[in-house]
Amino acid sequence: MAMISMRDVVKEYPSAKRGGDPIRAVDGVSLDINPGDIFGVIGYSGAGKSTLVRLINALEPSTSGVIEVDGTDITQLSESRLQKVRTDIGMIFQQFNLFNSRNVAANVAFPLNVANYPKENRAARVKELLDFVGLADKARAYPDQLSGGQKQRVGIARALSTSPKILLADESTSALDPQTTSDVLDLLERVNRELGVTIVVITHEMDVIKRIASHVAVMEKGKVVEQGEVFDIFSKPQHPATQRFVSTIIPGIPGDRELADLRSRHTGLLATVTVNDEQTAQHEVLRRLLASGANAQLVYGGMNEVSGRSFGHLTFELTGEDAQIRESLAQVSQIASVTTLEGANRA
């Protein structure tokens, strides 16, 4: 059974204009998130991803559709029963949302107080959590005395205080520098691995998805336009929105602008080879390109690795006799997808 299941979920807001059509922030979303998964939801600003995550913990009521959390349809629950469900869902935010007037220990203890956690056990629980996130020496510090990464670690400790089954991370690394982002993602992986917490990561950064997620849903204009295993989505993106995201971390087949630049510098035939290490080894691509006696120069593209598997698009300039080039392309086409591009003096 999925830990989180959504079926045809819609969320509408009233129009700002009197009599105007409602604004549909989430539009017919269906997805399943399995227990123990790290599931990414990615989209540009306004795609509906933050609204989606607020529906999961019922901070926003859905307009229609079914949302099941650990087997319970939360759209049918009263507010009092939702409070119980929310104790199983932790949440961390981009801006940390810490209480500046309370020290670190008191921030972490806050959900315990709300949940009526036994008072005599609260101090021990706070210490355990601060040890886990590496901030045992910051218990008496205040948020304005902490770095951004430390604040987010406090946020994670606070979100874990009631031992939730689910952790929602809404743009939780967007305000952090690259090294601190890496440290926080390491911690989230540890939370998933050691505590078995199902994590939903909301982000607009493809690097975050690549780094820790096993599955991903791509959103655009309130809809999920593509979803699946991260490697499959990265290596074979189908929707234009997904292709734009993937292109931010690895070049694909050259577009018009890139092709014009390549034409200005290369006179040979341009061909892009799509490489997937489950099917095609890079060294075998090169061997076949050169076997006929043609020359091959790598002029565009690159490789990337996701979930221990590599993929990418490599654009070569091929020069030599026409027959040699045709044979090179025929040889490589037997093991990989090849797209020939218009060169400066060849078609």
TrEMBL record:
Any Gene Ontology CC annotation: plasma membrane
Similarity field: Belongs to the ABC transporter superfamily.
InterPro entries: AAA+_ATPase, ABC_transporter-like_ATP-bd, ABC_transporter-like_CS, ACT-like_dom_sf, MetN_ABC, MetN_ABC_transporter-like, NIL_domain, P-loop_NTPase
Subunit composition and interactions: Homodimer. Forms a membrane-associated complex with FtsX.
Domain ABC transporter: 4-246
Function: Part of the ABC transporter FtsEX involved in cellular division. Has ATPase activity.
Keywords: Amino-acid transport, ATP-binding, Cell membrane, Membrane, Nucleotide-binding, Translocase, Transport
Biological process according to GO: amino acid transport
Protein name listed in UniProt: Methionine ABC transporter ATP-binding protein
One term of GO molecular function: ATP binding
SMART domains in alphabetical order: AAA
PROSITE patterns with a match to the protein in the record: ABC_TRANSPORTER_1 (PS00211), ABC_TRANSPORTER_2 (PS50893)
Gene3D superfamilies found in the cross-reference section: 3.30.70.260, P-loop containing nucleotide triphosphate hydrolases
Source organism per UniProt: Gulosibacter chungangensis
Superkingdom: Bacteria
